[in-house]
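User: Second chain of the day. Same drill as before.
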Amino acid sequence: MTAEGHSLNARKTRVRPASTRQSVTGIVVNDHPNMPRTEYDRLRAILHNCVTHGPGSQNHSAHPEFRSHLLGRIGWVHSLNAQGGARLRREFDRIEW
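Assistant: Same format as last time:
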């Protein structure tokens, strides 16, 4: 590392015990990579509300391709946690577009 002229930035270095959430760039990395629980729950709620009230009721940011946006978010979850991503995809498949 120092051979290339790089050095550690002590202000950006953290040591966290196993009992606290360890995250890197927004991804929880304690035992295995995962997304924060609050984000997973929020996405699951959006999908549930899309099934219940229709997808138009949940597109608060006016995404022009809301369906693709949701699929992308589900794909990101699946890349971190295949089981959780599969659960979200099953809920997505229930939405009537």
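The mean pLDDT is 91.

User: Great, on to the next one.
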